[in-house]
Amino acid sequence: MVDPHLAHLSNQLMLGAVLLYVVAMVGYAADISFGRRRVAAVPEEAKVLVGAGGPEAVEDAQETETETEDEDERRRVDWGRFAILLNVLAWGVHGAEIVTRGMAADRVPWGNMYEFVSAITFAAVTVYLVMLWRYKTNWLGPFLMVAVVIALGIATIWLYDDPGPLRPALHSYWIAIHVTAAVTATGTFTVAGVSTILYLLRARRTAPKPGGLLERVPDAETLDRLAHRTMMFGFPIWTFAIIAGAIWADSAWGRYWGWDPKETWSFITWVVYAGYLHARATAGWRGRKAAIISLIAFACLLFNFFGINYLVSGMHSYA
Amino acid sequence: MSVDAPETQAAPQAPRERPAGIGLFGWLRWGWRQLTSMRTALVLLFLVALGTVPGSFLPQRGLAPEKVTAFFQQHKTLAPWLDRLSLFDVFAAPWFAAIYILLFVSLAGCVLPRAKHHFVQLRSRPPKAPRNLGRLPESASYETDAAPDEVLAEARAILKDRRFRVDAHDDAVAAEKGYLRETGNLVFHLALLVLLFAVGSGAAFGYKGNVLVTEGEGFSNTVASYDAFKGGRSFTASKLPPFTVWLDSFSASYLPSGPNRGQPTNFSAKVRYQNGLSSPVRSYDLKVNHPLNVDGARVYLLGHGYAPRFTVRDGKGQVAFQGAVPFLPTNEATYASEGVIKVPDAQPDQLGFIGLFWPTAVPNQQGKVVSAFPAAWNPQVALFAFKGDLGLSNGAPQSVYKLETGKLKPILMGNKVKPLAAGQTLQLPGGAGSVTFDGYRQYVTLQVNHDPGRVPALAAGIVAILGIVTSFLVRRRRVWVRAKAAEGGRTVVQVGGLTLGGATPDFEAIVERLKKAAPEQPRSTAPDESPNMDEE
């Protein structure tokens, strides 16, 4: 029933995808650190000018900086492009990993925790690549890569399970609908979560430290708007995932809603995300407070995924 | 409550100051405003989320009553206190109901007036152009040789073409579109109200019954034939449709090897059913994700197990019992099961047995018998016999899975209980009788339920999604075009745009089209954006 060659190939592809993600991450990091070198090229000048005193002097220093930027422009663009290229390549290999995994077990490739993490990170990277293409969000790349590499690392080291057939409760076409929606929403919320963390860091100061990690990150308002849009995309999908789950539960377990721990926490997650969307439109709650609410919602999402599967026994215990 | 409430924002902030000397009515109104404010709704929303948390960590009576009992035994002092707070019935707790009812009153109190307001808005004209279009978030201004009337006519045509609702006032054109945003938003929230109502009424009028059926047997849809039955508050037993279901055979398949050896891969129950006495008998292959629909009810395959068959002869050599006895699995992975046989008809003493069943019996390292696989590859039983009074005559209810050993004496059979294979007989010492293991049957546990709220709830859920997606995709925007005659036969054209919740992506496109229709000419005077300054 299980094709061992394809299963092996899938594992090799996973390894390849992780390595490529790491290289992409290094590429993004190099992109940032070349930026740092650019600033480092004018330190003496800047020191003197700052020493000479006054805000005007600092302005002068910045002007000098923009002049030298042109010289390094070519090299910087190359590193950025390299990172994106590797990122897309990693994404392709990751996709092939999922497809071969599904072919090896002859079923939808989301039936256990290892496969869920793989699918969720794939969804997150897909959302990022779409955003990169539409809104040029390459500044998000390094941070998302860190999250993806950590998640896939956890999946391969601790959550790995050989491909095999599904248990009878999962024998339904609803697995393709419900789990795909849940995975897509989770991937989307992951991207939103990374953006929100960046927003909170970025909102702390008016201008990022030159050469710092946040140098390329846009201003707080843009980040907030991007995170909001991303969550607006994810929220209806999450709602759909819950409803599709209810339809499936209705045919598998004899009721559409029974406050199973997984159901309870997906409801909590839904409510807190709804709270975020409302808070953002409420005076006195928008900005930092709303962002923290959305991070609480993301924490609920993660707890629902890991905590409920491992700590609490319920009908969703597929761990 | 709303996802994006640009216009009713003022309302939630207004009731902050307390009214002085306004009497009872004033206080009621103040309270109502507090309740329906967004801030209160947010707090209630988070309280609902918080309230469900204990329901996921503590055992719940509605889901696993046996775990609640176990919890009481483990935490003798804590459990009664938790119980007083309804923490074992969170989703039926008064405090939980209080939170969600307040939330939904708050929701209704906010959404219904907004729906009315929106209904009025839907039928009204776009608002008049502000005096100074240059101060709007998006604005453009240029001069043209076209006459003001021509420009305005063009503007009307362009905006109508872009599906704006257009209105002309003196020297300006006002246009608005994107009413669907608020419509979708309101539909989403109203659908949630309907969803809650559907869930509540479904629970009130529906019923749920659980029954165990052994191969070769059946059950009728009457309250008495269920092992457990729960009807909703408004349910009447006479409304149960008269159908009957028989179980012909059950089969389960498991992974025979590999790391997940023993994991089930398929369950299938061959059943026949009859919808009332006059209908024909039909067959159905009942599987986990394929419930049987019969007469408005749904029959689900929930679980399965083994029912070993026994023949018990008493001390007089007569057959006192013959049949299959359902054993409950004690290990889900190997289906090692446990059960009891009660033989009240045995003479001279009543007989009782506690039995262990192993579908695939193998000895382990210590020589003890264990089950190695959930399928019945080598079924064996071990029996512990008792004689005396089973305690069935005093009328007190007894579980069929538990032997009341108070008035029973164990029949000793040496230190080791020898497991029986199919066909083997155990002779009880002292002429008490014998018991033969005849083989086994399988049984299934079925759930039958009827929930009249499920289809309306689904419809409300789908409408809610459509509503919120519409609301998120559509932007509400207003555009004004003003054309005024200036010196030298020129016309000053001003365009202003306002998008509620972000920049209008098509504002530039509108201006471009307008400039094509009424071509831009170099300015005769210094560039100005406000009409007031034009006069200087």
UniProtKB/TrEMBL annotation, chain A:
Does this entry carry the keyword Transmembrane?
yes
Q: Where are the transmembrane segments?
A: 12-30, 82-104, 116-133, 140-160, 172-201, 233-253, 265-283, 290-312
Cite the InterPro entries for this sequence.
Cyt_c_assembly (IPR002541), Cyt_c_biogenesis_CcsA (IPR017562), Cyt_c_biogenesis_CcsA/CcmC (IPR045062)
Q: Where in the cell is it found?
A: Membrane
Q: Where in the numbering of this chain does the Cytochrome c assembly protein domain appear? A: 110-316
| Keywords in alphabetical order | Cytochrome c-type biogenesis, Membrane, Transmembrane, Transmembrane helix
Q: What topology in the membrane does the UniProt record assign?
A: Multi-pass membrane protein
Q: Which NCBIfam families match?
A: cytochr_II_ccsB
**Family annotation (PANTHER family):** CYTOCHROME B_B6 PROTEIN-RELATED, HEME EXPORTER PROTEIN C
Q: What is this protein called?
A: C-type cytochrome biogenesis protein CcsB
List the top taxonomic levels of the source: Bacteria, Bacillati, Actinomycetota, Actinomycetes, Streptosporangiales
UniProtKB/TrEMBL annotation, chain B:
Ranges for domain ResB-like: 38-499
Pfam families xref list: ResB
Q: What InterPro entries does the database record attribute to this sequence?
A: Cyt_c_bgen_Ccs1/CcsB/ResB, ResB-like_domain
Membrane topology of the entry: Multi-pass membrane protein
Q: Which residues form a coiled coil?
A: none
For region Disordered, the annotated ranges are 514-536
Answer whether the UniProt record assigns the keyword Nucleotide-binding to this protein. no
Write down the superkingdom of origin: Bacteria
Query: Where does this protein chiefly localize?
Result: membrane
**Keyword set, alphabetical order:** Cytochrome c-type biogenesis, Membrane, Transmembrane, Transmembrane helix
| Localization terms from the record | Membrane
Report whether Transmembrane helix shows up as a keyword of the record: yes
Transmembrane residues, as ranges? 41-58, 92-115, 186-207, 455-474
What is the name attached to this protein's record?
Cytochrome c biogenesis protein ResB
